[in-house]
Each structure stands twice: as C-alpha cells, then as structure tokens.
Amino acid sequence: MQETATASPTVKETLIGQRVRKPDAPDKATGKTRYINDMVLPQMLIGKVLFAGRPHARIVRIDTGAAQKLPGVHAVLTGKDVAELRFGFVRDNVALKDKVRCEHDEIAAVAAETEEIACRALELIEVEYEDLPGVFSPEAGAREDAPQIHDRFPGNKSLAFEFRHGDLAAAEAASELIVDNVFRPHHVTHCCMGTSCAIADFDHNGKLTIWTQTQYPYNYKMDLAPALGIHPGDIRVIQPPVGGAFGSKLDVYPYEPIAALLARKTGRPVKVMYSREEEFKASPTRQAAIIHMRTGCTRDGVLTFRTADVLLDNGAYTSWGPTIPVIMMRTTSGHYRVPVVDFKAQAIYTNNPYAGSFRGYGNVQTTWATAQQMDMLAEMVDIDPLEFHLKNAQRSGEVTPQRSFLRECALVECLETAATASDYSRKRKEYAALRDAPGRYKKGIGLASSIHNAGGAKIHKSDGIGTILKMDDYARVTVITGASEIGQGIDAVITLIVAEELGVPLEHVTLVNNDSDVAPWDVGVHASRTTFIAGNGTRRAARKAKAQILNAAAKMLEESPEDLDLRAGSVVRNTDGAALIKLERVLRQMHFQAEPELVMVTDYYEPKSEPEGAAHVSDHSAAYSHAVHIAEITVDTLTGEIKVDKVTVAQDVGRVINRMGLEGQIEGGLAIGLGYALSEDMRIENGMLKNACFRDYKLITAPEMPPLDLHFIESHCAEGPYGAKGISELPTIVIAPAIANALYNATGVRIFDPPMSPEKVARAIFERCAPAGSGAVEPRLAGTAA
Amino acid sequence: MMSVETEIRFKLNGREVSLKVPVAMKTLAMLRDKLGMTGTKYACGEGECGACTVEVDGRTVNSCLMYAVDCDGRELVTIEGLRTPEGLHPVQQAFVDHGAVQCGFCMPGMIMQAKNLIENNPGLTREEAQRGLEGNLCRCTGYTKVLDAVEAVVSGKSCGSRP
Hints:
Number of domains of chain B: 2
Number of strands of chain B: 5
Shape of chain A: globular
CATH topology of the largest domain in chain B: Ubiquitin-like (UB roll)
CATH class of the largest domain in chain B: Alpha Beta
Radius of gyration of chain A: 28 Å
CATH topology of the largest domain in chain A: Aldehyde Oxidoreductase, domain 4
Oligomer: heterodimer
Number of strands of chain A: 30
Number of domains of chain A: 3
C-alpha cells in the first residue's frame, strides 16, 4: 500500500547492468565525427604505394626518374631508402622491399599534392622483375627443395610452439574411441569499414606525430621506431575515431612507416589511405592453418587425451598471425577436462598474404576443430552431445594442464541454459531421424562451446593500465586513460563506472584516451581485456577520488566519512539518503579552503595474472570464460545453402556492466563468426587474391542475420570489475562449429575446411548419397577397440 | 581528364549550391573533397557497401557511383541534412538510443537508407527492413540493433536506455 511512498532513498540505485548509450553515438549518427579517414591537415600531402602485384620475384631494376620529375610530386622512396630499417616480430619486414615476397609487397612510395598526381607518379615508376618460383602452402614451404623466401629463415621455418602434458601413449591405450581429422581453417580478413589510414608529421625537433588507427598505442611506438630508425620516445601517437579494427590494428603495417618516411623526407604531413581493393590485398588476414587433431575418450564418454599438430601458413612476413598457437594450445588443453595433451605448431613462410591478429585470435580455428570432435565423439559413444559435454565440463576451481585457473566456471550453467532454451536434445533427435527422409529442405541443430581468456592475457611483460581521474569545480569528471576505443564501447563502460562510483550524471564524464603524450600506459584493446582491465582501473581511480571527497566533506559537515556517500550530484547520508551538500560545492570548498586540494588521482592496475612464459604453463589471464552456442539451421540439400534460423547463446559474462553494449558486442561478434562459417573466403591462387571486393568477398548482410536468443550467465568474477569478465571474442569463436554440428545433424555431412559454402555443402551431400566408396568427405572415425 | 570542369547547380540539404566540378568526379568525392561534407563515407567506391548512401530527389543512391555532374538540377540530402535545430532526426535518435552505433563508420549510409525506407513505407516490418538494408554493410553490430532501432521508429517504442 505504501509502496509508492517508500521508494527508499537509503537504497542506492545502481547503474551496473543498465542500458547505457555510447557517448560518441550522436556525433557518429549525424556524420559529425571526424574519423582519421576524414582528416585533412594544412600542407598535407597524399602518399600512395606501389605494390608488387606478383608473389615472388627479384627486383632487377627500378627507375623512379620520371615520377620524381612529375610536377606536384614531392618525394619518391624505394627499398634503397630503408635498407636496414627492419621491423616486425622477428625483424623480417621493411617498409619498402628490395625483394618481392608477396603480392602486396610495397616496392615504392610517392608523396604528392593530390591523389591524382600520386597515382600518375606510380604509373611512371619502372620496375623490372625476375619472377621466382613461389611457395603457396605451408606443406609446400616445408619441403626440402622448396624455394627460400627469407635468407635468414632456412627451411622457411618461422615460429614454433610446443606443449605436452601427461603420458600420451598410456592415454591412447586407455581410449576406446578416437577421432582423428584434419581441419583446414582458411584465410579471411577484417573488412573494417574504414580503410587503413595513417597521417604522419615530423616537427623540427625530430619528433614524429602519427595519427593512426592503432589499437595498442604504447607498444606501437616500440614497434614503429625501428622501421624509421628513431627512438620510440620520439613518437607521439594520436588515435582519432576509427572505422573498426577487430585486431587488424594490433601491429605496425608498412603503410604506417611509409607515411612517416614520406613526411620526414618532405617536411610536410603525409596521409596514406587505402582503397578498398588495397585494403583487401594489403591488410592482414586471419591465420590459415592445417590442424591435425585427435581426441580420445572412454566407452563411457570421458575424455582421455587431445593432440593437435598444427601447420600454419605464415605468409611472407611474421605479424601476430603465427603467434596464435599461444591461444590455440589453451583451447586444445582447456576446452573441457582433457587430462593428457600434446600440442605442436610450426609456422611456415609462404608467398601468400600474411596474417595479423583477428578477433578470436587462434581460438576461432581451434574451436572449429575441438567443438566438432566433441560432437563426433558423442555420436560414437552414442549419447546426447549435451550429456557428453556435461560429463567433461570443468567446474569452478579446476585448473587446466596449462595452469589456467578456472576460479568461477559457469560452463555447466551455460550448457544447461542454452540447451533448455532451445529445446536442444529433443530437436536433435527429431532432426537426425528425419535426415534420410524424403524432402529437399532439412533442419538441423548443433551445439558448440569454447573457453577463452576473459581477464586479459599476459603475453607482454605487463597487462596493466594507467588511469588519471580529475574533477573540476563544477563536478565534471575527466578520465585520462590508456584504454583505446575502436567502436567496442569502452567509453560507455568507463562513463558508467565513474557515474556509479561518484554519483554524477553520465553526461558529466569526459574521456581522454587518444593521445600517447597525455594518457598513461595500456597494453591495448585486445584479448577481450578492456572492460575487465580498464574497468578495474577506472573503478579504483574513482574510489580514490571518492575517498578524498568524502573525507573533505566529512570535515565540512562534521560527520564521519563512513556515514557519507555520493549520489545524484550530492553528498548524502548513508542511513537515510538525505542530501547534505551539493558535490560541486564540496569540490569548490576543497579547492578554495585554507589548505586547498584538488581532486586528481592516479592509479596503475596490473591484473593478478602470470606471464605466459616459454613453457606455457601459467595462469596467464585473470579470468576465463565460456560460451555455448546452439545453432538451428535449414539446409537446402539441392543447392547446399545453409539458412541459420536461430542462434541461442549462453555466455558467462561474469556480471553485466552495460547491457546494451554487451548485447551489441555479442551480436556483432557473432556476425563476424557467421561470415567465417558461411561465406567469407579469400580466394588466393598462387599467392594472388582473386576476390578483392565486397561483391566477391561476401560479408553477412542484414537479411542473413538470424534472430538471437541471448542468455547472460553471471558467475561474479572475484577479480573483475563488479564481477565482470571480458566477453567480446567468444561470440566470434563458437558459432561456426555450432553450425557445422547442425549441418551434420541435418544431413550427415561434415565440412572440415570452412566456409561451409553452398558448393561444398551440396557436393558433400551429393557424395554422401552417392554409392559407397566415394565417402571422401565422411568424418574419418578412427574408432579403435582397446 | 579530371581537369575538364563543368558548373552545376543543385540543392544540398535545402540550400542552393553552385560549383565547378571535374566531369569525371563522383558525387562522393564532390561532397567530401570539394564541399568538406565528410559525414558521407568512402568504404568501397564500387557501390557494394552503402556507406556513401545519400538521397537524390527522394531516392537513395550510392554516391560513389553517381557522377557529380548528374547532381545538376537535383535535390540532395546527406546525413548532415537530417538534423534539425531541435536536435537529431528521429531515426538518428533511435540508432543512438538502441545501441546501433559502434564504430559508426557505416552509420551515415545506414541511417540514410533506413530513413528512406521508413518514409516510403510507414508500416515497414522487420523483414522488409532487413531486405531494404541488404546493401548496407556493417562489420560491428550484426545489424540486430539497427533493426531494433528501425522497428522502434516505426512503432514509436522507446527502449529506456540512458544518455
């Protein structure tokens, strides 16, 4: 009866878990936001790059004379200008090449007054090539007589990784059932809507300012400096708004030092921006790999071992792509309770485009294999896959063979929630029974899950973040943070957390996070880490500010600071919620009193995780998380087309912070995974990309996006901000094998090399229906009796 | 070839404009490079992504495919033209409120297309919106929140998000 009157002021309304808008959305929705692609500086020149357009060749002669003389051209650079300025993970790259190792190798660069003049100048550059035999697959590159791509890397061997745990021979002997398959995850690319772009300018003290799309501004300085022969301290990184990144801007790519080299040569700002065709050809890919995976279990359905022998297509240079085994092995060893593990990976140089990091970072490829083998084993054991998953699912407190400590593990709840919500077990049986019934359209349902780091990943020496928080005399808050914004929504999360802690309106919080001369260190936006790491940093800084304010207010009010709180722009009494004094008045009094003080706090947060280490046995993330996807599909058995009717998602998010941002990350991440599963495919023939446009490289469009049923499991992570975990990669990782398992449920065929394109699916269905002996695409079920 | 210029007059976001443009110039380049209206985005230049969508005489076009000289005598509306002195256009506001904007790069084109669909079909269904937005690529959102926003404009619903 009295409910309306007792909306108690003593209960603080929390923002955690609410729907909060992105602060930058109004400017983006009105076209006001100035993206890096939109930027024009006074005196700015346009830089263009001459690409080799052939996969492997010696440069016999290069003549830039005519280009140099063209009016409006200010500089022409070639490999001679950068001879020893090597950069990259293993120092195998230079901004401009003296030998061609892949189609998009940068041979020369021009700075001119207009793009038209720059393009004309490129046409005037004469290059004589002597083509060399190429290497277009890792198997070919590993052969003894293979052409050598880099003199410094004999046998075309790039990075190698290994992890072993337990007695494999004994585990194999104890395995009554073994699946053994070769999976071939393919090349796809990020397709950021804003194409790659950098603007560079040197001042006359030799300091470089670079406007860039980078998502790791601090290590970026370290990585860019050797490409220019300057000190990392002499680089200022400014991050204007970007049209997406998804991992593609987690390294230095040649166009960035090229912009800087042209700027140094001309003394003027230089902008290099790719066309879409250049973007397709010259930006990084997701790593293609050949994964030979074996998983064993007992007749009762208890996993006994998992092995993975991975050959990675390094491409021509080493960026983040060949480092993905760091995560691949975590999934091989930690996706379900696997007592014995044997993982090895070797990256082989080829003359193909080279891979960078891409949302999901190795786990997309690995889960494509592990999640399909879970489904195959369940069938061999002859139990419902859900039951098989539950039987092998880890619980809270378990530790994986690589020492990932699953403090709060919600895998079982994720499995049960998704299965119940989608009526999985009933539908799976029903669809399997109808598989060979007449009819062109078949329905299928498939379950997949995965594990991923959800509290950063300590692959650098630090996984920390610096935060500076200041308040002015009007109680406006500025957060100066290393956390980068690439569209994912850390701006909304930081704003929400500050408003939650300091009781100020969301619109009174300003973020400064785009200038390395101003904002403190952060590793970068990657590894599903930013809400977790920057969220903790922001909360800690805000709590320091709050303590300072409440102490000062307590003195002014002759109260005890423990009895006070900040709510709705005022200092309030905890017990009855009564507003005692306006927050901005407190701040002004603090500032102007006899012993003046300003609220300006700093914080450095380093998560409690262990460095990855060479042995790969470490608790390398401060949290781990699981997601389960259940895909329901309809297959046109005539055309091979898969229509995804619905996806049910249950993901351990720790705790919901900004519900709207969380949903958006899961929906968007899943769309990238759907493209990977169904349509995206870089067609690379003899090192040359054949489909460098959106017409032929098919992203998921609005009509193909299925309805999603999202379930957020809150496991309340002790180390996470308010209990939250990192979330943004799992949606991209899990969906493809869920669809693959649904395809099997519907038709009895399995595809090992994504995408599950209509041609492949139709052929597989045709071959399954063809007379026995043609079952090349049937899963090779190496069931062995012990 | 770009040096051959011709003078054109047209209406841009309600204002008369007259300028000289190279005959080979596309409308997108004219907007961005000649007029400094960078709200309309370049993302493919081949009419495949919809990021450069503008309205010409009430119909949406990919401005990267349309020659600038063909704007002569027409009426163009770009993303900058939707805002009123009172604030954002209802479609823009719905995109903001429903979390349809992440990196936002495709949004000017997406919003132009969505606005046009809604104006031409006040009873627009979600399925019709999906088909109508097929030519607008987005890499961030998975379109779900975009469709939520469009549905909300059509039905007049609010989602209760905070500014």
